Amino acid sequence: xxxxxxxxxxxxxxxxxxxxxxxxxxxxxxxxxxxxxxxxxxxxxxxxxxxxxxxxxxxxxxxxxxxxxxxxxxxxxxxxxxxxxxxxxxxxxxxxxxxxxxxxxxxxxxxxxxxxxxxxxxxxxxxxxxxxxxxxxxxxxxxxxxxxxxxxxxxxxxxxxxxxxxxxxxxxxxxxxxxxxxxxxxxxxx
Length: 190
Known about the structure:
Blueprint: E1 15-18, E2 25-28, E3 32-34, E4 37-39, H1 45-50, E5 59-65, E6 70-77, E7 85-91, E8 93-100, E9 111-117, E10 122-126, E11 130-136, E12 141-147, E13 156-158, E14 176-177, H2 179-182
Parallel strand pairs: 6-14
Antiparallel strand pairs: 1-2, 2-10, 3-4, 5-12, 6-11, 6-13, 7-10, 7-12, 8-9, 8-11
């Protein structure tokens, strides 16, 4: 039996890159590998806090989509249950989209989309006050959400994925969308 040095001892911090939207970040894990595979840090409260980010995680959720072209979103929770999210694709790939709904933000009502895959090891940090949704790009896609607030049904809200106000450029036309997500009303600023 081979005895291998511990990968855990050689972990490096995650890489943080600002997204085009204020306060939203792209995080990349830095795997350390050997012939067994790799080991990587996917969450560290100290690292998020060092970048001025809310590192509260109270719940972790998983989403599985059988078909490519499945769209989920655009969802958010209103005050007092606004939530931060940390999104990672564990299997397959998604086109992940966020919309800044904070009236005091320099990127108010702007959207941003990024491809997250099981292979590119990216995560998206989404602050409070953003709508979030994604479309699967491959069959059998699984997404992990770490969220900073408990699911609160009476605070749940959403935007239609094709609302002309946001003009989101989805990579392909969605083929599977829930009735609920098809019927969110047009956005009206408060």
